[in-house]
Amino acid sequence: MNQDLFKTHLATTIEWTTQALSVAKGEGVDAAGALFHSGGLKHYHHDDHPVAFRAVAHFLRFAPLSSPDHVVRFVGGEAHLFEFVPHDFWEEAPARADHPFRQHLPITTVSSREELRSALGDVSKCAYIGDDPEFANSLDVPASLVEPPALIQALDWFRAYKTEYEVDRISEAIRRSGVAHEEVLDGFRGRQSERTLVDRYLNATGHRESNVAFDAIVAWDEHASILHYQAKKQEAPNPGSVLLFDCGARVDGYCSDTTRTYLHDDVHPSFREIVARLDTLVHTLIDSIRPGTCFVDLQRNADRGIAEILCAVDVLRCTTDEAFDRGLTAPFFPHGLGHHLGIQTHDRGGFLPGPTGDPVAAPDRYPFLRTTRPLESNQVVTIEPGIYFIPMLLEPFRSGGDASSFNWSLIETLTPHGGVRIEDDVLVTADGCKNLSSEVVPR
Ligand code: GLY
Ligand code: MN
Ligand code: MN
C-alpha cells in the first residue's frame, strides 16, 4: 500500500474529527477533545469465555487494530495512539500490525488498564466514543460526555465520505471476496454442501468465522428465499440448481459485500430469464448513479424495474404500472436496495440529513431501506436488488383482491429455486460512479 494514502487519510480524519467536535459544540456538547476506544472485551453470561471481539468503527478509522483497549486520544487537533499490549501468558499478544499508521501516529504502548489510565492523563473533559461506559467512568468522563448523540451523528455523517485510502482498502476487500467467489463457484459446479462452501470461502479470504465482515449467506435452492439464511447444511444440496452466495471480506477494518446467484443447466427457463434480467437491472441502476442521486428514487426505480421483470416473465399478469402502483412487487422484493459500505458492512449515517438535524426515515412503502441520503462523491454503497419466492410473504396475496394478477402455478414451479440477489459495490465519483466489484467478482 502506498504510504502517502494513509498519511492523507489520517490528515482528513483529523480534519473531520475537528469539524465533528465543533459541530457538536454548537449542539451543546462541551468537550475538550475525544477518546476513541477500540472497545472492551465482553464475556458470555456467567462465563469466563469472551465474545468474539469487534473494534469500534470510529476507532478503526485511525488505526486498524482489532483487539480491546487501544485508545486514540484526540486533543487540540492531534491524535495520539495508546496501544494496548497486555502481559499475558494465556493468549498470544495481538499482532502488531505492519501498517503505515506506525509511521504517522505517535504511539505509547501500555500493558494494563491502570497503565493506560495513567498514560492518558487527565481526560475528564474529553468525550468518550466506545462501547464501555464503565471504562469511561473510570477515566472520570462524565455521563454527559459518554457517546454524546450530537457528536456521534457528526462523526457518522463524515464517515460516509471515503478517503482514497479507504476506497483502496474496500477495493482490496472486494478483490478478496472475488477470490472467494471463484472458489465457491468451483464448489457450486460440484454441488458441494453449504458447509463445505463456507469453509472454502473462509480459506480463500483467510478469515475465521470470528472476524468475517458478516456471516456469509451460502444458500442452495429454496434456502435462497431466506434473506439472511444463516444455517450451513452439511448434506449435499438436492437438487442443487441455484446457489445464492453473499459474502464479505475485511481488510484493515474495511468491508466488502458482494452477492452472486449461480445457476445449473436444470434451472427453469423462466428463473434463468429472471436472473438475466435482474443482472441487466443492476447495471441500469448503477449507470444512473451520480452525485445528487436520491437513494429513495433508486429504490423506486428498482421496484419499478422488478415490476417490469415479473410482468415480462409472466409471474405477474398485469401491466408494469399496475404491478408497481398496487405494490405487487412487495412480496418478491421485500428488502432495501442497498446501504453505505465501509468499516461496517451496513455503515451508519444513511438516514442523516447533515452533521446535525433530525434523521429522515425510510418511506412507509420501503421500511427496510437503509439509506435516504442523497448520494455524494466519495461515498461507497451497495446496489443489491433481489427477486425471491417467499411463501410467507406470498400467502396473504393468494386470498387478496389482487390474487388474479399472480400466476400461481408458475410461482409454485419457481418456489423451489428460492430466489436471486445480485449485489455490487459502487463508488460515487465526481461525475458518475464506478462499479468496484463488477469485474472482480465472477457473475
Ligand atoms: N449480507 C447482507 C447485505 O447484503 O446487506
Ligand atoms: Mn450482501
Ligand atoms: Mn449488502
CATH architecture of the largest domain: Alpha-Beta Complex
What is the gyration radius calculated from CA atoms? 24 Å
Mean pLDDT: 97
**What separation lies between the terminal Cα atoms?**
28 Å
How are the strands of the largest sheet arranged?
A: 4-3-2-1-5
* SS strand fraction: 5-15%
Task: Report on the architecture of this protein.
The chain has 443 residues and is of the alpha+beta class. It has two domains: 3-159, 3-Layer(aba) Sandwich (Creatine Amidinohydrolase, Chain A, domain 1), CATH 3.40.350.10; 164-435, Creatine Amidinohydrolase (Alpha-Beta Complex). 35% of the residues lie in helices and 14% in strands. The protein has helices at 3-26, 57-60, 101-104, 113-120, 133-138, 149-159, 164-189, 194-205, 269-287, 295-312, 320-325, 391-398, 408-414; strands at residues 33-37, 71-75, 78-84, 107-110, 126-129, 217-220, 242-247, 250-251, 254-255, 258-263, 380-383, 386-388, 419-421, 424-428, 433-435. The strands form five sheets. It has a five-stranded mixed sheet with strand order 4-3-2-1-5. The radius of gyration is 24 Å and the shape is globular. The structure holds glycine and manganese (II) ion (2 copies). One manganese (II) ion binds at residues 257, 339, 382, 384, 423.
Secondary-structure map:
Elements: H1 3-26, E1 33-37, H2 57-60, E2 71-75, E3 78-84, H3 101-104, E4 107-110, H4 113-120, E5 126-129, H5 133-138, H6 149-159, H7 164-189, H8 194-205, E6 217-220, E7 242-247, E8 250-251, E9 254-255, E10 258-263, H9 269-287, H10 295-312, H11 320-325, E11 380-383, E12 386-388, H12 391-398, H13 408-414, E13 419-421, E14 424-428, E15 433-435
Parallel strand pairs: 1-5, 3-4
Antiparallel strand pairs: 1-2, 2-3, 6-7, 7-10, 8-9, 11-14, 12-13, 14-15
Helix pairs in contact: 1-6, 7-8, 9-10
This protein binds glycine (GLY) and manganese (II) ion (2 copies).
